[in-house]
Amino acid sequence: MNKNENLYSFKRIKSFRYYLVHMMRVFLLLVTFGLGSAFANFSKAQTKMDINVKDVSLEELFNEIQSKSEFIFFYKDAVLKHKVSLKLKNATVATILDTALKNTNLIYNIDLRQVVIKEDPTVDADKMSSQSQQQRPIKGTVVDEAGVPLMGATVQIKNTNRGVTTDFDGNFELSVPNDAKALVISYLGFVTKEVSIEGVSTVNVTMIADNMALEEIVVIGYGTERKSLISDAVTAISSKQIEGLPVSSVDGILQGQASGVQVMQNSGTPGGEMSVRIRGLTSISGSSQPLYIIDGIPVTTGDYGQLSYSGQGASALSDLNPSEIASISILKDASATAIYGARASNGIVLITTKRGKAQQSVVNVNVFSGMQRTWNKLDMLNARQWMEYRNDLTGTTVFTPEQMNNIKVDTNWQDVIFRDAPISSYEVSATGGSEKTKFFISGTLFDQEGILIGTD
Questions:
Q1: HEC profile for 187-224?
Q2: Residues in contact with 404: Cβ distance below 8 Å, sequence separation at least 6, in sequence order
Q3: What are phi and psi of 132, to 5 degrees?
Q4: Is the CB of residue 418 less than 8 Å from the CB of residue 455?
Q5: 269: closest CA among 215, 313, 329, 231?
Q6: Which residues contact 216 (CB under 8 A, 6 or more apart)?
Q7: What helix, strand, coil percent values describe the chain, rounded to 5?
Q8: 22 vs 245 pLDDT, higher one
Q9: 165, 225, 231, 346: which has the fewest Cβ within 10 Å?
Q10: Residues 255-278, buried b or exposed e (16+ Cβ, 10 A)?
């Protein structure tokens, strides 16, 4: 009896040890699984990536994160009404979500590879929406270096697609979010400018000309356009091409500088009008002269004055100093009539004069002088040769040998009417200024005498 009881007790102890060891194995297995899951969750949450998006929806942001990681997002479409702009480098998913969901009524929960986006029940969604949409007005003016308003300049909120264009007077007004930091202003031919709007409600912007871009800009009837984009027949002459040319008039600048433009000097009269033909002779009785536009103002040309007794017409452009010209554009085809109508039927010559710049004051002095003389006189007969010619022409003795031997006057009338005529020009100009005030002042004394006596 005692022997059996001892055997039974030994079996019970052995069975208890077996169950205890088995339970410890299961517990260790569960602990290992839990630690592995926690480590996996932690490692996934620490995945880092670069994010650079601009004014995109939350759905687009989540798709971007999913494409760069193993995370999967779960959300309702109704909560994705917000737009975000992010630029983060080597950031974790938690950092990205904290930044993207800031100032919203949304929260997130990361579980392994799953990210759940939901609304925060403790936050008033309507209140958050109204706060995020609070805006303030910004107004201002955009001008160039000369203080001239720029119509059509683009004013855009930085990092957004929202913006306006300036009106005829260069003014603009738009509403910006309270958290907007800066505006970006751009205009063709000028350097794009970024202006801070923090703590201000009025912005006045002065645009600086882009010299590299202006080399490819041509002035046309509608304003300015890139030379590579022009399909019309336009010839442009820059100030560098005419710099140093000893010419006394704008007509003389066009001579030999513009292809297809015929410039003919009607006479040697100083200040006399030249014939300029862009489309050839377009009228028998009317004028074939082109329409000149100086800084947007049409100039009427024609024989409204005469010089001395020669009857030579005075040029309407003789008072414009060629050295004050910044550029000349010649519009040749029919598109020139789109703005100026029938007056432009003979073509248009658009002249833009120089203006002040925001720079250190500079004074220029330009002086030249010279002498004009006839270079190809006719070979005339002297008095005796003329008498012999008359006798031969008539076949009779008009002049006797005695008369021919007693000639006392022998005049070459070319030497009487022509002379060596001086020409001189004295020019002084000053330019400079600051961002607010710019100036360009010039004065010219031009004196030219004609080689024909009486054409001063």
A1: CCCECCEEEECCCCCEEEEECCECHHHHCCEEEECCEE
A2: 384, 387, 388
A3: -70, -20
A4: no
A5: 313
A6: 226, 227, 228
A7: 30, 35, 40
A8: 245
A9: 231
A10: bebbeebebeeebbbbbbbbebbb
pLDDT tens digits along 224-267: 555 444 445 677 777 777 776 767 777 777 777 777 777 777 66
Pairing mode, strands 202-206 and 135-143 = parallel
Mean pLDDT of the chain: 76
Residue 65: which H helix or E strand, with range? helix 58-68
Whole-number Å distance between alpha carbons of 85 and 177: 14
Kindly give the pairing relationship between strand 106-111 and strand 114-119. Answer: antiparallel
**Residues 183, 129: contact at Cβ < 8 Å?**
no
SS3 for 440? strand
Cα–Cα distance, 310 to 307 (Å, whole number): 7
**pLDDT value at residue 49:** 84
Question: Taking CA 120 as the corner, what is the angle to CA 114 and CA 125, rounded to the nearest 5 degrees?
Answer: 130
DSSP symbols for 398-427: SS-HHHHHT------HHHHHB--EEEEEEE
Residue type, 113: R
Are 49 and 69 in contact, with CB atoms under 8 Å apart?
yes
**What confidence score (pLDDT) does residue 10 get?**
45
Residue positions counted in the chain: 456
The dihedral sign for the CA sequence 157, 163, 164, 165: positive
- Dist. CA 288–CA 331, nearest whole Å: 15
What are the CB-based long-range contacts (under 8 Å, 24+) for 189-195?
189/213, 189/214, 189/217, 189/224, 190/144, 190/150, 194/158
Cα–Cα distance for residue pair 54/83, rounded to 1 Å = 9
Place of tokens 């004014």: 55
Tokens of 371: 């002498």
pLDDT in tens, 379-406: 888 889 999 999 999 888 889 988 888 8
Q: At 96, which amino acid appears?
A: I
pLDDT number for residue 8:
45
C-alpha 240/C-alpha 263 separation (Å) is: 20
Cα–Cα nearest to 117, from 81, 142, 151, 157: 81
Question: What pLDDT, in 10s, does the model give residues 112-168?
Answer: 788 888 887 776 555 554 444 567 888 899 998 888 899 888 999 888 878 888 888
Task: Tell which wins on pLDDT, 185 or 322.
Answer: 185
Cα gap 132→169, rounded to integer Å: 33
1, pLDDT greater than 80: no
State the burial class of residue 46 (Cβ atoms within 10 Å of its Cβ: 0-12, 13-18, 19+): exposed
